[in-house]
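Work Package 3 (structural annotation) set out to generate three-dimensional models for the target panel prioritized at the project kickoff. During this period the team completed the workflow that converts sequence records into discrete structure tokens, so that structures can be stored uniformly alongside our sequence database. As a representative example, we reproduce one entry of 275 residues exactly as it appears in the project archive.
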Amino acid sequence: MPGPYEQRPALDEVVQMMGGLAYMTGPSGRPLRAGASVTDILGGSYGAIGILTALYQRQTTGEGQLVQASLYESVAFLVSQHIGVAAVSGEVPPPMPERGRAWSVYDLFTTADDQQVFLGITSDRHWLRFCAIFGFADWASDERLATNQGRIAAREWFFPELQARLSRLFKAEVMRLAEQAGIPFAPVNQPLDLIDDIHMQESGSLVEVQTPAGKLARIPGLPLRLAGVPCPVRHQPPGIGEGSLELYRQAGFSEEEISGLLSEGIIQFGPGSTT
């Protein structure tokens, strides 16, 4: 955006650091970038939203307008929730790994097969269903654990025992019981695990794209549906220089200018460009 920083080179990790996201992601003294290029994606997403908004307004006014979206301001928007909390509480928000506890159970647990499952119990109704389905009747009747605040106060003795009980179950069993109880849960997946994920497969959320080596790869598609239909792949990723000639022509370069850039080795065209 226009301002004192507009001439600085911006990269995803750079703006995560200067925008406060890396500070909030890692523990104190160890700022960490998020595990994906969230700023690049978000900046592009807001650019697309801006374009759609400008096109919609053009239908009313008949006039176009400049659309601007930036990486730094995208990060600032992401951390605005922490700035808002500080405005209300008057306290500096700690990094997420050190945040205060809002819920009594919102943690990772290691199972009998040495896997990890995240469980969240965010209401007293969750707690009662959790105890009933997992067979923890003694805790369901324990008045010290009847409320979320009571369970937070009792974590010193209660949480180690919860860890011990769940460690006797296998990952698949913990997940099956958690789903039956209707409480939030999640396995700790790696990105490649999503290719074999039953929901991603059966919901049509995976698309096939061609790699530079000519092989087909399955990756998650756009997280968007129109009239219930997933967005298809319109074009395969282009090779180096593919389609560039058409883009130079659309940008207003003359054939003579294009030939000059080619002869000087400044540009090159790949397969799919028509001369």
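Residues 38-61 form the longest helix (24 residues).
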